[in-house]
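Changelog entry

Holo records now carry the ligand SMILES as an explicit input line rather than a separate metadata file. Below, a converted record for adenosine-5'-triphosphate, shown in the new format.
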Amino acid sequence: MATSTGLKRKLKSRLTSSRKKPKTKHLTSDELPWKTVATPKEAGIASDLDGILGLEEVDDVEVVYEETEGGKVIRFKVVEETVPEEEDVQVEEEEKVAGPSTDLLLEDNQIREHTPIDFKSLLPDWHPFELHSQLYHALRNQGFTSPTPIQSKAIPVAFKGKDVIGVAQTGSGKTLAYGLPILHHLLSNANPTQLKQQKRPLKALVLAPTRELALQVSSHLNACLNSFSENTVVDVNREDADGNPVLSQSQSKKRKEKGKNKEIVPVQSKPKGPPLVSVAAIVGGMSSQKQRRILDRGVDVLVATPGRLWDIIQEDDDLAIQIRALRFLVLDEADRMIETGHFAELDNILRLTLRLATEEEIEPQLSGDNELSNPTRDDQSLPNPLQTFIFSATLSKDLQRNLKKRSRPKYKSKNTKPASTLDDLVMKLDFRDPEPEVIDLSPEGGVVSTLKESKIDCLSNDKDAYLYYFLLRYPGRSLVFLSSIDGIRRLMPLMDLLEINAFPLHSQLEQRQRLKNLDRFKSTANSVLLATDIAARGLDIPAVDHVVHYQIPRSTDVYVHRNGRTARAMRDGFSLLMCAPDERRLVRALMGSLGRREDEIPEMSVELYLLDKLKARIQVARQIDSAQHKIKKENHEKNWLREAADAMEIEIDSDLGLSSEEESKGLPTKQKRKQTQAKTAALKAELKSLLAQPLVARGVSTKYITSGSRSIVDDFIAGDYHETMLGMKKTQAGQDVALPKKKRPKVVKEEYEEWNGISAEC
Ligand SMILES: Nc1ncnc2c1ncn2[C@@H]1O[C@H](COP(=O)(O)OP(=O)(O)OP(=O)(O)O)[C@@H](O)[C@H]1O
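Structure line, unchanged by the conversion:
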C-alpha cells in the first residue's frame, strides 16, 4: 500500500493525464503506416475494396464512410494511443491490490476530491440497495440521483435471487433494473487473481431484438463500469494488436510521442491487468471475426441479437457450453424478438439454458452437421443457479398470469417442437424459481403520463403535406414511423428536395449506415428520422420531441413502443397519429384494445391556408422526383443496352441516339431526353422560388406589421414569433391540440325491481 502522501502525488499526475483525450487524425489510405505482408491466396483476405474493409480489423483505425457532394468518400481516423507513465502504472498496481478504491470522486470527468465518498448522504435513495461502490460512482456521474420505480421494485427482488418479469412503461429505466443486479453480483464476486490466470467464463447473456438496441444496452452497461476504476474496466469491443482489450477512451493515459516530426506511429498501451468485469455486444452486420476474437478472449456479460449469436454458437462448442452454465439470462423486449424472424434462433439459444434431468436429453434444433456436444447434467450439477429476467413495456396480462402458475419447462426431449409464440416460448423457459416475481408497472391505457397524443384525419394523398406542415411548424427532433421500406424510399427524396434534414433507418441499409444515420439524428437538433419499426423498440435517443405515426401501427404494442421513443425518463413528449379514412377502423380497434375510445385522442389544429401553400411545394417536388426517377431509369436502360451491344460486338450510335431502333424498343430519343432534363431543371427552379417565398399566415400584413387582421408586432416584441411561418406563434406541438374529450361516465345499470304488472293499488 502506498503512503497517503505518495498516493496524493501520483493522483495529481493522474489528474493531468486523465484530462487528456486521445487525439484523432484524419489520414488518406496512403498515409497509414502500411506494412507489406504475405497472405495466402486462398484466404481471400482483404479482397474487399482493396483491403479497405479489412482495415476495420486494425486497432485504432476507424474507417468512416461519408456521403459527400462528390460521391462516397472513405476516410480513416487514427486514434493516437498513449503510453502510460510509470507513475500511473504504479498507482494502478496499488489500486489493484487494494481493490476498487472509493477515494476518487469523478465529477464532470475530473477528479475533484480525494476523500472517501459518503454515498449514504450523496445518494440516499440508492443507498438501501447496498450496491458495489463502483456502481454508486457511475450512478452519481450519470446524474441518476434516485432509482426509477421499476428499478426500486426489481433490484431488491433480483438481489434475493428471484427470477423477475418486469413490465414498465417505455423509457422508465428497465435496462438498469436488470443491469445493476447483474453488475453488482459480478463486481462483488470478481477475483482479480483468478482472472489473470484463466479465461473468464460467460456469466450473463442479454438477448435483444435489434442490433441497435443490443449495442445500446452494451454501452449503457459499460457506462456503469467505465465511470470509475480505470484499471479494472475495459471496452472489450476494442482490442490491441495482440488481441488484448484496450482501455476505453476515458482511461487513456499520457502518451510518449515517438519523434515529433514523424508520422504518427500508433503506440498500443497494454492493459495493466484483466478487467474485473467486461461487457461486449455481438450483433449482425459488424465484423464477425472481431466478435469471435472477443469471445475467444472471454467476456462476462454478452449482449446479443439471437441471429448472430446462434451463427456463432453453431461453430463454437465452447460458447454453447458456457451458455449452459450461465448465471444470468435476460430477455429484453422479448415480445419483439418473436416478431423479427429470429424465433428459431432464440428458441435454440434458450434450449441451451434448460436444466437437464439425468434421464432426459434436450438438443437444440441445430442446422448442418456441426452438432454441439450436449453433456447430460442434473439440477445439482449446476455450479450457479440461473436467474432469468424478462423485461418489456408490453407483456400481456394473460402471459404474466400464466407465468406465475408454472415452474418447470415443457421441453421434454429432443423431439420437442420449437415454440411458436411468445407465450409458448416464455412458458417453456426454465425458471429455477418456482414463483418468478411479476412486477407490472405498466400505465393504464399504455400511455406514459408525460406524453401528449394527437391525431390528424386526412386523405392518404395529403399525408406528405401534413407531415411537411408539422415538421416546419414544430421544429425539433421528429421520429416518423412508416410501415414499409418503400414508403421511406419514396419520402426521402421529397424531404431532400424540400430541404428537410431527414435520415432513413430500415433493415435494408448497411449496419454501418444505420448506426451513422442514428448518430446524425441524435446529434442534429432539428432533424427527422424516417424509420420502420426496427426503431420502435428500446432505442434511447435523447430528446426526441415528436413521434409521428405516418401509418397506423399494426398492433397496440407497436403503438406503445413507438410512442416510447419520446417522453422518456419523465420528460415531455408528443405523438401524432396520421389517420386516413380507411385507417379509422384500425384506430378504433387500436384504442379499443388499450381500453380507450377513438375520440379520446385530440385533434391537432392545422392552419389550412398555410397547408395549401405547402401542398403547392409538395406537388412540384413530386414532379421533380418522378422526372429524376425517369431519367435514372432511362440511364440504367441505356447502360444496359450499351453493355449488351458491347457483349455482342455490335456497333451502336456514339451518343446512343438510336432513333428508329431506339424508338422501336420504347426508349426515348436524345431529343426527348433533353426535353425531360430541361423540364426537370425548370421544375427545380420553380421549387427553389417557392421555397424562397415566406410562409405568411392569412390576415398577416408583412408591409404593415401592426395592421392586418392578425397583427404580428406583439409576437415580435415578445420574441415568440415563428421563424418560418409568419403570423404563427412559436408554440410546442402539445399546446396546439384540442383538449381530449372527457371520458363519458360509465353507464351504471340501475337495478329495477322486477316488473310484475300493474298492482292492484294503481
Ligand atoms: N435512475 C435513473 N435516473 C434517471 N435516469 C435514468 C435512470 N435509470 C435510467 N435512466 C435513463 O433513462 C433513460 C431510459 O432508460 P432505458 O433505456 O433503460 O428505458 P427502458 O425502460 O428500457 O425503455 P424502453 O422500454 O423504451 O426500452 C436512459 O437514458 C437512461 O440512461
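Spot-checked after migration. The longest strand covers residues 71-79. The chain has a mean pLDDT of 73.
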